[in-house]
Design goal:
- The protein is mainly β.
- It has no helices and eleven strands.
- Strands 2, 4, 5, 6, 9, 10 and 11 form a seven-stranded mixed beta sheet that branches.
- Strand 5 and strand 6 form a beta hairpin.
- The protein is globular and about 45 Å long.
């Protein structure tokens, strides 16, 4: 059974850093995409970043571009979201999700369409204090 487990959230001061992890297990897929999404209180969930496993292509939302970096450890089957220069507006519950058979080629922003994603983790809280 496919499982996604996030970790790494916490409380950090503005300007600080956190690294989120998304460990995937229980599946065999030739290609897929891992997405990171977040939901702040009273707001809709939004896509933050994506990583296409087959070709290494990535996507970042404008709100995090230049501050967040997504990467993968092949041996651990884990995708990381390094978050630097955090701002209070980054405060949210962060989820990772897996989109089977999705490969980022062109139109990278399409990777944050939630309809692609069949599997979701339980979420990890990130709180940035001012």
């Amino acid at each position: 059974q496919l499982q996604l487990v996030e970790s790494g959230g916490g409380l950090v001061q503005s300007g600080g850093s956190l690294r989120l992890s998304c460990a995937a297990s229980g599946f065999t897929l030739d290609y897929y995409t891992i997405g990171w999404f977040r939901q702040a209180p009273g707001k809709e969930r939004e896509g933050v970043s994506c990583f296409s496993i087959s070709n290494g292509k990535t996507y970042y939302a404008d709100s995090v571009k230049g501050r967040f970096n997504i990467s993968r450890d092949n041996r651990k089957n884990t995708v990381y979201l390094q978050m630097d220069s955090l701002k209070p507006e980054d405060t949210a519950l962060y989820y990772c999700a897996l989109a089977p058979r999705l490969e980022i080629t062109t139109h990278e922003a399409m990777c944050v369409v939630e309809g692609w994603y069949d599997y979701w983790g339980q979420g990890t809280q990130v709180t940035v204090s001012s």
